[in-house]
């Protein structure tokens, strides 16, 4: 916990350092929500080959972060986590080429009550 999915436009390949982004995101999440630890964060990336934003003008890039956490946080805590994650997204996409508009978004949701996880051999 948490489970994080980052769907990003293929045009961001040369801009987004995925490992550095994930490391910073994990740290910021743990600093923002006392129930989150860096060691508990799980981030996966999904490169999206084709996206269309609005009327399909050139120079549009899309990145969306789905942040699923265990139930029990207040709406304010979820908003704070979303805002912090959006800040990390903005910092890590700030070097897009001139004329490129990055459409970034974050959705903080709760994992279902049936969520279970396993950490294999050698894990804690």
Automatic annotation (TrEMBL):
Any one GO molecular-function label of the UniProt entry: isomerase activity
SUPFAM superfamilies listed in its UniProt record: Tautomerase/MIF
Matches recorded under Gene3D superfamilies: Macrophage Migration Inhibitory Factor
InterPro entries: 5-COMe_2-OHmuconate_Isoase (IPR004220), Tautomerase/MIF_sf (IPR014347)
Coiled coil: none
Swiss-Prot/TrEMBL keywords: Isomerase
Pfam family, one: CHMI
Protein's UniProt name: Isomerase
Taxonomic lineage: Bacteria, Bacillati, Actinomycetota, Actinomycetes, Kitasatosporales
């Amino acid at each position: 916990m948490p489970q994080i999915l980052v769907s990003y436009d293929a045009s961001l390949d040369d801009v987004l350092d995925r490992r550095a982004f994930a490391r910073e995101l994990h740290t910021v999440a743990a600093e923002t929500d006392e129930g989150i630890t860096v060691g508990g964060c799980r981030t996966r990336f999904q490169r999206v080959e084709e996206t269309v934003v609005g009327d399909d003008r050139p120079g549009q890039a899309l990145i969306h972060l789905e942040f699923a956490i265990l139930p029990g946080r207040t709406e304010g805590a979820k908003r704070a986590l979303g805002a912090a994650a959006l800040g990390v997204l903005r910092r890590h996409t700030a070097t897009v080429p001139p004329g490129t508009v990055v459409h970034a978004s974050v959705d903080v949701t709760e994992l279902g009550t049936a969520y279970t996880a396993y950490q294999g051999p050698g894990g804690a």
